[in-house]
């Protein structure tokens, strides 16, 4: 029960379960002693409690010796359908006033930590420390955080957190036009996703600077993906770390086929979607939602010979569209050297690609390299956004204005380590939002 409820089990918990066990044994024995008595198949709603469902299932057996098993089944069923097993329950202290901020219990801290780093329940080591009231001690908490990051279960940060933050999960639903991109298939789709996962995993496992996500000196490739990117001398299905020459079109997240494909349409690139993705996920400055009844860019109403940049210029002529698109589009234009499936190109519709762009602060640049340099010149913007995304994942809620000071302190402290991944995780675990809660 301690593992199921992620907290100590007291006499009151046992007293709630024992009647299920006793009643199931008694009712099972009664059914076996009088086989002519038909089983009670009424629904739990009609019976008014959970034990009826367990008893109904147990009555399909035919031996009086199984009345003990029926009792265990009923008690276990009660645990499995209980609120505390199905949900992560954080109980306010009795009598606490509304809107009061208080420190969560050690067991709640263990639960937050394990679901953050492992996407699963606390193990016995965490629960033992919580039961002794030791987990909240700073040195103990730091040691446990390091242990959990080194554990294979922290792979959930790659599959779950990175999958959500970088939209990798959306890649499964993206199907580029087969006439325009006949080489795109599910093997390529999975290879794209794996490249991004391996880069994030490398930063996690080797405790590298999170800035390496933006501009590493290598790529993770297999033969299928390397061929798609035009990189020679990579063979086989196994992914390997491939050093990149200076000036290579590959490397960081902004050059990954996964992200470039998931931010495109089936037939063409979308500087709008790409710009919005960068603003939301790398810069932490999401644009406002579009105004109602504003038409989208209709490819059928503009000349097919126009570049996407020229088509969007016509779209921005609508004053209702300009306010947002003047911010999103320049950022997205920087990735126009990549087509809708992430291949490098220098021409669009027979004309040289114009990849000049700009940041919301007015800074101008050209191409993906210029965008990367702009991000790296002000690393606190990217690191702050990543910290907010991690904190959102850790708490299961959106960032609130009151979280701002904690986020800034985490980023400030991580600067001394060149923004190592563990510094961000440790800062989040130590932070007020992670260790405190405010009553409704």
Description:
This protein is mostly helical. It has 4 domains: 2-86, no CATH class; 99-150 and 378-440, no CATH class; 151-262, no CATH class; 270-277 and 284-370, no CATH class. The protein has 21 helices and 8 strands. The strands form 4 sheets. A two-stranded antiparallel sheet has the order 1-8. A two-stranded antiparallel ribbon has the order 2-3. α10 crosses α11, α18 crosses α19 and α19 runs antiparallel to α20 (421-430). It is elongated, with a radius of gyration of 28 Å. It starts with a helix and ends with a strand.
Beta fraction: 5-15%
Summed over residues and divided by their number, the pLDDT gives a mean of 87
* Helical residues, percent: 40-55%
User: By helix and strand content, what is the structural category?
Assistant: mainly alpha
Supply the number of structural domains: 4
Terminal CA distance reads: 28 Å
Give me the count of strands: 8
**What is the spatial order of strands in the main beta sheet?**
1-8
Largest pleated sheet = 2 strands, antiparallel
Number of helices: 21
Order of helices and strands: HHHHHHEHHHHHEHEHHHHEEEEHHHHHE
Shape: elongated
Rg from Cα: 28 Å
**Which regions have little confidence, pLDDT < 50, spanning 5+ residues?**
32-65
Question: How do the helices and strands line up, and which of them pair or pack?
Answer:
Elements lengths: L1 H4 L5 H23 L10 H4 L3 H8 L8 H14 L2 H4 L14 E3 L2 H12 L6 H8 L6 H13 L5 H10 L20 H20 L12 E4 L1 H7 L10 E4 L13 H6 L8 H11 L26 H8 L3 H15 L13 E2 L2 E2 L3 E3 L5 E3 H11 L1 H17 L8 H12 L5 H10 L1 H4 E3 L2
Antiparallel strand pairs: 1-8, 2-3, 4-5, 6-7
Helix pairs in contact: 2-4, 2-5, 4-5, 7-8, 9-20, 10-11, 14-16, 18-19, 19-20
């Amino acid at each position: 029960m301690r593992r199921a409820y992620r907290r100590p089990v007291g006499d009151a918990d046992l007293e709630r379960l024992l009647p299920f066990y006793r009643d199931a044994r008694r009712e099972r024995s009664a059914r076996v002693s009088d086989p002519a008595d038909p089983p009670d198949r009424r629904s739990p709603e009609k019976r008014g409690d959970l034990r009826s469902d367990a008893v109904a299932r147990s009555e399909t057996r035919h031996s009086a010796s199984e009345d003990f098993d029926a009792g265990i089944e009923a008690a276990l069923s009660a645990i499995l359908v209980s609120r505390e097993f199905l949900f992560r329950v954080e109980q306010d202290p009795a009598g606490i006033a509304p809107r009061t901020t208080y420190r969560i219990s050690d067991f709640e801290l263990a639960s937050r930590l394990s679901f953050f780093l492992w996407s699963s329940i606390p193990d016995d080591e965490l629960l033992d420390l919580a039961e002794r009231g030791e987990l909240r001690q700073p040195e103990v908490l730091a040691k446990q955080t390091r242990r959990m990051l080194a554990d294979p279960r922290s792979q959930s940060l790659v599959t779950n957190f990175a999958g959500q933050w970088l939209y990798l999960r959306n890649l499964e639903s993206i199907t580029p036009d087969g006439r325009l991109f006949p080489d795109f298939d599910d093997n390529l789709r999975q290879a794209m996703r794996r490249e991004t996962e391996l880069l994030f995993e490398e930063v996690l496992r080797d405790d590298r600077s999170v800035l390496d996500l933006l501009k590493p000196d290598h790529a993770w490739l297999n033969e299928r993906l390397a061929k798609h990117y035009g990189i020679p001398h990579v063979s086989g299905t196994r992914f390997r770390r491939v050093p990149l020459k200076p000036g290579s079109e590959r490397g960081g997240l902004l050059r990954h086929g996964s992200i470039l494909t998931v931010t495109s349409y089936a037939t063409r690139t979308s500087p709008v979607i790409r710009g919005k993705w960068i603003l939301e996920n790398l810069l932490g400055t999401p644009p406002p939602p579009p105004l109602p009844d504003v038409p989208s860019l209709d490819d059928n109403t503009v000349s097919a010979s126009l570049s996407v940049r020229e088509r969007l210029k016509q779209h921005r002529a609508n004053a209702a569209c300009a306010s947002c698109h003047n911010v999103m589009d320049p950022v997205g234009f920087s990735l126009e050297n990549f087509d809708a499936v992430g291949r490098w190109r220098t021409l669009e519709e027979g004309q040289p690609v114009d990849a000049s762009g700009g940041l919301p602060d007015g800074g101008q640049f050209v191409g993906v390299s210029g965008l990367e340099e702009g991000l790296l010149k002000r690393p606190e913007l990217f690191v702050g956004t990543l910290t907010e995304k991690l904190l959102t994942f850790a708490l299961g809620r959106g960032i609130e204005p009151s979280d701002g000071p904690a986020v800034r302190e985490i980023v400030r402290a991580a600067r001394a380590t060149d923004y190592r991944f563990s510094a961000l995780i440790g800062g989040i675990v130590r932070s007020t939002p992670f260790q405190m809660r405010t009553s409704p």
